[in-house]
Amino acid sequence: MATNTTGNFLAGVIEGFYGPPWTQAERFELFDLMSRWGLNTYFYCPKDDLNQRAIWRELYSAAEAEALGELIQACLQRNLRFVYALSPGLDIRYSNAAELDHLKKRFEQMLELGCKNFALLFDDIPDRMDPADSQRFGSFASAQCHVVNEIFRWTRARCAEARFLFCPTPYCGRMAAGGLGGEGYLSIIGRELLPELEVFWTGPEIISREITVAHIRELQTVLRRKPLIWDNLHANDYDGRRFFCGPYSGRTPELRAEVSGLLINPNTEFPFNFVTIRTLAEFVSCSANWDCRQAYLAAMREWFPYFATSGQPLSLEDLILLGDCYYLPYEDGPEAKKLFDRARDLLSQNPATWGDEAIAFRKQISRLKEFCFRLTELRHRPLFYALNRRVWELREELDLLDRYIAFKSVVGNHDAAYHPESHLPGTYRGGFVARLQCLMVTQTNGTIAPVPQGE
């Protein structure tokens, strides 16, 4: 398979997270990277852009429209497909013709700016309908199909080459199995949604560790079309403590033939997404063999120049270890896993038996701690500002671990209690949320239960 980034296959990036939208400068940088790496689609739908969801009935101001026009032209200049999305599902009245007029006016404004590709999204909305809508359509799915089909026909009449995408209310396997959207929702979508329309899907889960060919083929029979993957593998808007810079993984190259495209919705903070986007581009164009770890290491080498400092140069080896600490939602990178296992094994032993192992381990974590500190010297300040709070937390944990091992290594302290001088209750791992987290524990089987009393 030479490449999937030409023709009708959509390959690229969704700006579709919750949180501050990217800046224009960041988007232009993204377009340059996508063009250089062979990706072809930018999908505009930042969740916390008021105009995208909350006030979808209002037209853009002159200044807002000008900014969107700049993005559209920038994509055209780089041979990228710009897709504009609107999310009216929070409060739309499906049976009210005036609502369709609002949608048409917004899309008309975008057509005038040069946009040719559109989407209507009905994800993350209340699972209920107005009584009038329910009486007319009978189901959530039928109501949405009515609106989307109508707007699609209207758009195609004005732009014959328009590509039109749709995000269903249950957009992953778990949601569909749970009955979100009503009984038979996806089957109704498959029957009633016009065949030219493409349907987003995130896989078995909202954040899917794997998306298999078998899973997608089963979905095809229901939707009566190839789904379009909205991939949240690297999304971090649900956890402000983490980011993910591991490789695109958990999907085999054979998947590409079963879907109409692969679009990633990545980290909210744009500077974190270099490896994410780079490895997606490699996956889309790779041959039958896909080695995600080698793709990661190659992308890290390309990203490394962004870590130029005002002082002593950093090392690629240390950057790879840092990246492994913030790898993917379901797994640490191999170097971070080895570090964690080493720490766990050491702490499970009697300090009197540690010996040289404690010395070697302290040296290793001191090096990582020093690397984290040296990031303050990054010349790429937006990258540092994005890293700072997360890496500060990592430094604190490494420092506590280092101090604890140092204390326990001293003869006479092997059985003594350790009282840290700087990690004080309330200021360290403190706050209301942290206390709430201490009330419940995740079991190895994935269930959550209260922490037993006395622990």
Task: Summarize this structure briefly.
By secondary structure, the chain is of the alpha/beta class.
Descriptive notes:
It is a single chain. By secondary structure, the protein is α/β, with parallel strands linked by helices. The chain folds into two domains: 10-304, Glycosidases (TIM Barrel), CATH 3.20.20.80; 316-430, Methane Monooxygenase Hydroxylase, Chain G, domain 1 (Up-down Bundle). The chain has helices spanning 24-37, 62-77, 97-112, 131-137, 140-158, 173-177, 185-192, 213-223, 274-285, 292-303, 316-325, 334-347, 356-374, 381-409, 432-437, and strands at 10-15, 41-44, 81-86, 117-121, 163-167, 198-201, 228-231, 261-264, 440-442, 448-450. The strands form two sheets. The protein has an eight-stranded parallel barrel with strand order 1-2-3-4-5-6-7-8. A two-stranded antiparallel ribbon has the order 9-10. Helix 9 crosses helix 10.
Spatial separation of the terminal alpha carbons: 56 Å
CATH superfamily of the largest domain: Glycosidases
**Shape designation:** globular
Largest sheet: 8 strands, parallel, barrel
